[in-house]
Here is the input.
Amino acid sequence: MDLEKILEVTGLSVSFNGKPVLSDISFTVYNEKITVILGGSGSGKTTILKHILGLYPVEPGKISLLGRDIATLDEDEQKRLYLKMGVFYQKGGLLSSLTVGENVALPLEQHTNLPDEIIKEIALQKLSLVNLKDTYHMYPSQLSGGMLKRAALARAIVMDPQMLFCDEPGSGLDPVSLASLDKLITDLKEQLQMSVVMVTHEVSSILRIADRIIFLEDQKVIFEGTISDALASDKESIINFFNKSKGH
Ligand SMILES: Nc1ncnc2c1ncn2[C@@H]1O[C@H](COP(=O)(O)OP(=O)(O)OP(=O)(O)O)[C@@H](O)[C@H]1O
Ligand SMILES: [Mg+2]
Here is the structure.
């Protein structure tokens, strides 16, 4: 089967204050797949996402997103490209002074000229996709941890992004809530025909949702491929990573 490349990172190196974090890494993300980036704490996972999202200059290296080299885009092109990307950050990040509905509607308020009724309707529709349609008028402080994650997810998909980036979306959730968040992400990916790039440590999540994995260690990508190839790998760190969960 021919897979369509939608993101290519080539020869990216990153150092902070002279300390190398990523050394000459390359990997590819394919359309309509869930790709999980794995690696220990501090291995550079969030750093990779920030480079893809244009928050840091790519130097040296090249990142091609939906076929565009992100370093060559002018401000306007960059803005248009990133409107096709939904982002779900490590800490959720809803604004506490706005209702859940207003939080979800915010990207539409900021980036479209749609009339208020339509914006409200889209926000409600996205909230119902994450099973939260009754929380439109509630404040984030009135939601449980799992509900907050789902609300943040509704906000990340409110612009119908082509790609969704998630940084540790399940952190802090109990196993049942985590499993339902995973199912939600998988269902949304199918419904909205998105590609998902996710950073997570949770082996149970990876086994449930990953189509492909990218494994970071010692500043390098030590494995890139399908989840079944990863499970069949004879690399010690990959075997250890997947065995780690069996005792729990
Ligand atoms: N802006 C920055 N300035 C200096 N150092 C940074 C900066 N951002 C990240 N780092 C360093 O780069 C390394 C990788 O950080 P990063 O946040 O990418 O790790 P991570 O793999 O996401 O870890 P975790 O799983 O704990 O979230 C760490 O040593 C971190 O201290
Ligand atoms: Mg991180």
Summary: The radius of gyration is 18 Å.
